[in-house]
Design goal:
InterPro entries: Enolpyruvate_Tfrase_dom (IPR001986), Enolpyruvate_Tfrase_sf (IPR036968), MurA_subfamily (IPR050068), RNA3'P_cycl/enolpyr_Trfase_a/b (IPR013792), UDP_GlcNAc_COvinyl_MurA (IPR005750). One of its GO terms (biological process) is cell wall organization. Cell wall formation. Adds enolpyruvyl to UDP-N-acetylglucosamine. There is one protein chain. This protein has 3 domains: 46 residues, no CATH class; 210 residues, UDP-n-acetylglucosamine1-carboxyvinyl-transferase, Chain (Alpha-beta prism), CATH 3.65.10; 208 residues, Enolpyruvate transferase domain (UDP-n-acetylglucosamine1-carboxyvinyl-transferase, Chain), CATH 3.65.10.10. The chain is built from 15 helices and 27 strands. Helix 6 runs parallel beside helix 7, helix 7 runs parallel beside helix 8 and helix 9 runs parallel beside helix 11. Bound molecules: uridine-diphosphate-N-acetylglucosamine and phosphoenolpyruvate (PEP). Phosphoenolpyruvate binds next to helix 13.
């Protein structure tokens, strides 16, 4: 297996119903008793052994450079969209992440042929072999639900496990379903699954009560093969929506307005193949910018689209960090600086991203003065607060607001990642803390940060993964 721990295995190497055995610190995704078609190929990743943890000796300023990978939140819907066509499609800059492994397993169960070559995926789906995304996958990753739009559009039917809530909120899917119903799908619920049927979807005008990223993507994917025009109003404007629309248009779809509040989609009869490079991960890049700030380092974060990071950059500058744009990326230089508290309110793009809230809270915990952080996107995204408090942070929660009173420094201890960005925040806190920090439940972190340990080590951090 390559060192990155990202590979396809054939069913021949796995006894039915048992985890696959691999060399190195790897635990295979359990295949349970899924039908053989779903067992053919799976990804395995580092970081899933029950007792694995990340250990950090804090206090080392980050320096040098770190390159951001392709965006998780762009590649997941794009991978779901490959179901819309026989292909072939080639995706470049695909990050080696647990979530990518999960969606690939879902696609393979549905008939996709996927070949991985370094950070490229070659995908073709000559014919769909099913129309179901089972609970075993959806419970591991909510974004599996994004196959619903493509399946409805191409197969006329979809059976998807209900995703349920997660650590950051209840996360209903009503807006996705409202969109499918408006396009003419007949939707039924039963036994933990949603089923939808449509002979051919019909274009419609759909107003989203909230600019949901997932609903915008799912409806857009369903509408590309619908009969006539679909208009999505109050659509999400995130860069990942634009990347998905660009990918779909390169397959032959006719989408206009992605990245604005109104998206117009003229349905076509079929789509072809294309090669597409995934945009850089703005949240991963933002996490490293904050890592440099919290350690008072001097770091160049490469492979960024500066425009996508505007709210993050603005808040870092407001806190007193030095940021400059260079040919290869964004430099943050905080050597010898005292940073001050700032107020933050998470909002849909182009507002401050909820996926950066926890990391900023870690930074503001050690900034001078008081910061008010208001989380408006998810109702329960403060699970990191108690863990940060265990490291010495002074934070009070009042409803959807956290009041952070900056302290002179944090102290390392054992802490637990409760979700992906909570885990990232604890890593950042550990990089700045005095002494040793142990972060457990690191499978959450592996969902969204490619080669986190290696990247941070190369920038001077004393960090390692241990069992
Ligand atoms: C894989 C992916 O891209 N994940 C991102 C995506 O998640 P996701 O697409 O799930 O986020 P949404 O934008 O849909 O959710 C935003 C809010 O809308 C609510 N809602 C959503 C759908 C719905 O049908 N009904 C409803 O009420 C959610 O509960 C939440 O409170 O956008 C979020 C908001 O930027 C990010 O934090 C996630 O990292
Ligand atoms: C919340 C996130 O992802 P997901 O929507 O896949 O849970 C995230 O990336 O921070």
């Amino acid at each position: 297996m390559p060192d990155g721990g990202f590979c396809l295995f054939s069913a021949a190497r796995q006894a039915p119903g048992r985890p696959m055995v691999c060399s190195g610190p790897v635990l295979a995704i359990l295949m349970l008793d899924l039908p053989a078609c779903r067992r053919q190929n799976i990804y395995t990743l580092k970081g899933h052994m029950a007792m694995e943890k990340i250990v950090i000796q804090g206090g080392q300023p980050l320096c040098g450079s770190i390159k951001a990978s392709g965006a998780k939140n762009a590649v997941l819907p794009i991978l779901a969209a490959t179901l819309l066509t026989a292909g072939p499609t080639v995706l470049l800059d695909v990050p080696k992440l647990a979530d990518v492994g999960v969606i690939c397993a879902v696609l393979q169960g549905l008939g996709a042929h996927i070949e991985q070559r370094d950070d490229r995926l070659h995908i073709s789906v000559p014919r769909l072999a099913g129309s179901e995304a089972p609970y075993e996958y959806v419970r591991q990753m909510r974004a599996s639900f994004l196959v619903m739009g493509p399946l409805l559009a191409r197969a006329g039917r979809a059976r998807i496990s209900l995703p349920g809530g997660c650590a950051i909120g209840t996360r209903p899917i009503d807006l996705h379903l409202k969109g499918f119903a408006a396009l003419g799908a007949d939707i039924r619920y039963g036994a933990g699954y949603i089923e939808a049927f449509a002979r051919r979807l019909k274009g419609a005008r759909i107003y989203l009560d909230f600019p949901s990223v997932g609903a915008t993507e799912n409806i857009m994917m369903a509408a590309v093969l619908a009969d006539g025009q679909t208009i999505i109003e109050n659509a999400a404007e995130e860069p990942e929506i634009v990347d998905l629309a660009n990918f779909l248009n390169s397959l032959g779809a006719r989408i206009k307005g992605a990245g604005t509040k109104v998206i117009r989609i003229d349905g076509v009869d079929s789509l072809g193949g294309a090669t597409h490079a995934v945009i850089p991960d703005r949240i991963e890049a933002g996490t490293y910018l904050v890592a440099a700030a919290i350690t008072r380092g001097n770091l160049l974060v490469e492979n960024v689209i500066t425009d996508h990071l505007k709210p993050v950059v603005a808040k870092l500058i407001e806190a007193g960090a030095n940021l400059s744009e260079e040919e290869n990326g964004l430099r943050v230089d905080c050597r010898g600086l005292t940073l001050k508290g700032v107020d933050i309110k998470t909002l849909p793009y182009p507002g401050f991203p909820t996926d950066m809230q926890a990391q900023f809270m870690a930074l503001l915990s050690v900034a001078e003065g008081t910061s008010i952080i208001t989380e408006t996107v998810f109702e329960n995204r403060f699970m990191h607060v108690n863990e940060l408090k265990r490291m010495g942070a002074k934070i009070k929660i009042e409803g959807r607001t956290a009041v952070v009173q900056g302290v002179a420094g944090l102290t390392g201890t054992a802490v637990k990642a409760t979700d992906l960005r909570a885990g990232a925040a604890l890593i950042l806190a550990g990089l700045a803390a005095a002494g040793e920090t142990w972060v457990t439940n690191i499978h959450h972190i592996d969902r969204g940060y490619e080669n986190l340990i290696e990247k941070l080590q190369a920038a001077g951090a004393r960090i390692k993964r241990m069992t």
